[in-house]
Design goal:
about 45% strand, 1 helix, 5-stranded mixed sheet, mainly beta
C-alpha cells in the first residue's frame, strides 16, 4: 500500500527522472530547463542546480551511488546520469539553500489584461510601475523594437482597468527598456537596460510627463558595482533597488550618483533569475519575482524572506515585471501587478503574447505591521564541532501584539524543527551548514522571521580571485605575437587560433591541499555561437611569472599533464556570467600545481587555453570587475585557516569622493596567533590599498 506521498512544488515543469540521495532528499531533473531540483523529505524545494547544455543530451535516467574516485571518502556519493553518450558522474556543489519562513500565501487572479491587444501591441511586456500622479500603470516592452510590429512605441501607460491611453518611446537613449520605476516626489522616471548595463533617469521637465519634449536624461552604469544583467528596478525610501537576473542579486543604489549602497543574494531565499521588483512603502519591504514562475517573494531590503506568495492562478509563462498599486476592484487595498513576456521573440520573431495580471495581495490585515524578529545568539557564521552544545536566543516584537518572543518557532533547513520560544540549547545538530530560521506570526496573520547560518564541523575553505592586472591576461597569436592590452579575450580564434593565458596572483591555497572543486568564470563581452573546442591546462610551475610581450611567452610555458576539454554553448548576450560561461571542473589541473614541491600559499598560477572556435570574454583591460574569476574549494588537514574580521567601516558604507576612510580589522590563527599585522587590503576597483591592522 501507499507509504507516503509528497506534493511537488508548483512551477517545476517537464520533470524526467527521480533519484534519492544519502540524506533522503529527492532530486528531480528537468532536461528542457537544464535544472536539477532538490526536495527535502517534506517536499520543500531546497536547491536548484544547472547543468551544461551538452550534459543532458538524450538523458535516460539518474541515480546516486558511491563515488568512482578512489581518493574520495569511501562514503561519498555522486550523481550518475545515463545518456545517449553513456554514463557520466557528477559532484554536486554545495547547495544554494532555499529559505522558507512559512507556507506560501495563495493569491487570486483579479483580472488579466491582454497587452498584445494594445494599439500598437506589447508582445514582450516587461517592467511595470505605478504612476501615483495619474493613478495609472506605466509598462515597458524590452523586445518590441526587434520585431516587425514595432511602431516607435515601447512604453505604455494604462488605467488600472486596463485601458491604454499613453504611448511613448525610449529608443533615443534605450532600445530595450527592461525595468521601470517612478519617484512619486518629483515624477522622475527610471528605466533599466540589461543590454547596455545601465539605468537611465528621466527628468520630465516643466510638463511633468516623462518621455515627452523637454526631458533631461542622465544615466549610470551598473557594471561599476558588478551588475551585468539589470532587470527590474524599484524606487523607495530615496533609494533605487535593482535586481540582476544572472547574478541573482538585489542591488541598493543611490539614484543621484549610481553608487552602490548594499547588495544581497536572492538564490538563498529560493528566487532564481529575478526579473521583477517593487517597493512597499507601508512596510519598507520588497516584492520580487523570477523562478519559480508561480511565486512572488516578499523580502526585506537585505533579502530576508518575509513570506512567499503563490501566484499559480495567473499561470504566467515568464513573469518579467512587478508593481504594487491600488486594486481595480477596491482602491483602498493594494494588488500585485505582474507582467508576462510569454514566448521569447528569438525563436519566434512573430510572437505577440504580452500580458498583465492583477493579483490579490494576501496575508496581513490592512494596517497590520509584521513582527520584528531578531536572532541574538549565536552570531551569523558561527562554526561549532559536531556534538557541541549550541545556545539559541531571539526576540520577537509586534506593533499590535507587543512581545511575542515566546511564540517563536526555530527550524534548521537540515534537521527541521529544533526548538521553540525565546531560547534553548541543543547538541543534536547534524554535521553540515545549517540555515537557522526563527519565525512567528502575529494575531493579524502577518509573518516575521530572521535567519542565520552556522556550520557544524569544519567550515568549507574557498579561494576566489579575478585576474587583477593588465599583464595577467594575454593573447598570443599563432605567429607568437603577445597582446597584453586587449579590451577582451577571444577564446580562441582572432584571425588565428591563439593561445590565451590567465594568471591569478596571491593564490592562498596551501601546498598539498586537497582540491575538491575548481573552475574559471568568464563574463561575456560579445555574443558568439558556433562550433568550439577548447583545452584548458595549467602552467607547470611553482610560481607563474607575469606575462610579457616577448614572442611565444604564453605558448612556450610548460604545461601540466592534466587538462580539461570544454565546448561551451553559444554566448547569447553581453554581460552574462552564468553556468554557460563557467569552465568544467579544473580540480585535477590545480591539484597538480599545488602538489609541486616548490608550491607555497600566496604563489601565482596560470591557466592556458588553446583550441578552435570563438567565445569573447571580458578582459582585465576591458572590465576589471568582469575579468576571469578563479574559484577553488579545498580542504587541508590539521592547519586551520585564519579568522579575519573587518571591524571598520561597516558593510554598505557610502562616502564622498576624496573623503578619508579608516579601515581596521583583526586576524587570528589557531596555529600562529595574532596575524593582524600581516593583513593585505585590496579593492576590486583600485587593487592594493593598504596593509596591517589599520590604515586610512
Amino acid at each position: 500500500g501507499l507509504v507516503s506521498e509528497i506534493e511537488i512544488p508548483q512551477g517545476l515543469a517537464d520533470l524526467q527522472g527521480l533519484a534519492v540521495d544519502a540524506n533522503g532528499h529527492l532530486h528531480l531533473l528537468s532536461p528542457p530547463a537544464r535544472e536539477l531540483y532538490e526536495l527535502d523529505t517534506q517536499g520543500n524545494l531546497v536547491a536548484v542546480r544547472t547543468f551544461p547544455v551538452e550534459a543532458l543530451a538524450g538523458v535516460q535516467a539518474l541515480t546516486f551511488a558511491l563515488s568512482s574516485d578512489g581518493t574520495d571518502d569511501p562514503a561519498e556519493h555522486h550523481l550518475f546520469l545515463a545518456t545517449d553518450a553513456g554514463v557520466s558522474e557528477w559532484t554536486l556543489r554545495p547547495r544554494v539553500v532555499v529559505r522558507r519562513a512559512k507556507a506560501p500565501n495563495d493569491s487570486t487572479l483579479i483580472q488579466e489584461i491582454d497587452a498584445s491587444g494594445f494599439d500598437p501591441p506589447s508582445p514582450d511586456s516587461a517592467g511595470i510601475a505605478y504612476n501615483q500622479a495619474n493613478d495609472s500603470l506605466v509598462m515597458a516592452d524590452s523586445e518590441v523594437n526587434e520585431m516587425p510590429i514595432f511602431e516607435d512605441v515601447n512604453v505604455f501607460e494604462l488605467t488600472r482597468s486596463g485601458s491604454l491611453f499613453g504611448r511613448f518611446d525610449t529608443t533615443d537613449f534605450s532600445d530595450e527598456p527592461t525595468g521601470v520605476a517612478i519617484n512619486p516626489a518629483n515624477g522622475h522616471c527610471f528605466f533599466s537596460d540589461d543590454t547596455g548595463g545601465a539605468v537611465y533617469e528621466v527628468d520630465p521637465g516643466s510638463d511633468g510627463v516623462c518621455l515627452t519634449g523637454g526631458d533631461d536624461v542622465s544615466e549610470f552604469s551598473t557594471g561599476g558595482f558588478g551588475s551585468g544583467d539589470p532587470e527590474g528596478v524599484a524606487f523607495g525610501d530615496g533609494k533605487l533597488f535593482i535586481v540582476d537576473g544572472v547574478d541573482r542579486q538585489v542591488y541598493t543604489v543611490n539614484p543621484s550618483n549610481g553608487n552602490l549602497i548594499s547588495s544581497c543574494d536572492t538564490a538563498g531565499i529560493g528566487v532564481d533569475d529575478p526579473e521583477g521588483i517593487t517597493y512597499d512603502s507601508d512596510t519598507g519591504n520588497l516584492f520580487i519575482v523570477g523562478k519559480p514562475s508561480s511565486e512572488i517573494a516578499e523580502i526585506t531590503t537585505s533579502c530576508g524572506l518575509v513570506r512567499v506568495i503563490n501566484i499559480a492562478a495567473a499561470d504566467a509563462n515568464k513573469p518579467a515585471g512587478l508593481a504594487l498599486a491600488p486594486s481595480s476592484v477596491n482602491p483602498s487595498v493594494n494588488s500585485l501587478w505582474v507582467t508576462d513576456r510569454g514566448v521569447d521573440n528569438d525563436p519566434d520573431p512573430d510572437e505577440n503574447d504580452g500580458k498583465i495580471y492583477e493579483m490579490s495581495l494576501p496575508g496581513a490585515a490592512p494596517g497590520n505591521a509584521p513582527p520584528e524578529v531578531t536572532i541574538t545568539s549565536p552570531a551569523d557564521g558561527t562554526t561549532v564541532d559536531v556534538g557541541d552544545p549550541v545556545s539559541f536566543a531571539g526576540t520577537a516584537t509586534d506593533a499590535e501584539d507587543g512581545n511575542i518572543t515566546g511564540s517563536l518557532s526555530w527550524t534548521s533547513d537540515v534537521d527541521g524543527t529544533i526548538g521553540g520560544g525565546a531560547g534553548f540549547t541543543t547538541s543534536g545538530l547534524s554535521e553540515g551548514v545549517h540555515v537557522i530560521t526563527a519565525s512567528v506570526t502575529d494575531s493579524g496573520g502577518a509573518p516575521g522571521a530572521d535567519q542565520i547560518s552556522i556550520t557544524v564541523g569544519d567550515p568549507p575553505l574557498i579561494f576566489e580571485k579575478r585576474v587583477a592586472a593588465a599583464a595577467d591576461d594575454a593573447e598570443e597569436s599563432a605567429g607568437g605575437a603577445v597582446d597584453l592590452g586587449s579590451s577582451d579575450l577571444e577564446l580562441v580564434f582572432d584571425g588565428s587560433n591563439q593561445t590565451v593565458g590567465l594568471r591569478f596572483t596571491g593564490v592562498s591555497v596551501p601546498a598539498g591541499a586537497s582540491i575538491l572543486e575548481a573552475w574559471v568564470q568568464f563574463q561575456v563581452d560579445e555574443a558568439n555561437s558556433g562550433a568550439i573546442s577548447l583545452t584548458l591546462e595549467g602552467q607547470d610551475a611553482d610560481h607563474a611569472a607575469i606575462f610579457t610581450t616577448a614572442s611565444g611567452n604564453v605558448s612556450s610555458r610548460p604545461r601540466t599533464s592534466a587538462s580539461v576539454a570544454w565546448s561551451p554553448p553559444g554566448w547569447g548576450s553581453a554581460g552574462a556570467a552564468g553556468p554557460d560561461q563557467q569552465t568544467p571542473d579544473l580540480s585535477a589541473v590545480i591539484q597538480e600545481i599545488v602538489d609541486r614541491a616548490g608550491w607555497a600559499s600566496g604563489n601565482a598560477l596560470a591557466i592556458l587555453v588553446t583550441g578552435s572556435g570563438e567565445r569573447t570574454a571580458e578582459s582585465y583591460n576591458g572590465l576589471p570587475s568582469g575579468a576571469p574569476l578563479l574559484h577553488i574549494r579545498y580542504s587541508e588537514d590539521g592547519n586551520e585557516a585564519p579568522n579575519v574580521t573587518i571591524t571598520s567601516p561597516s558593510g554598505g558604507s557610502s562616502v564622498d569622493v576624496g573623503e578619508s576612510v579608516s579601515f581596521a580589522a583583526t586576524a587570528t590563527d589557531a596555529e600562529d596567533g595574532n596575524l593582524a599585522g600581516s593583513l593585505s587590503w585590496n579593492s576590486s576597483i583600485n587593487g592594493s590599498i593598504g596593509s596591517g591592522a589599520s590604515f586610512s
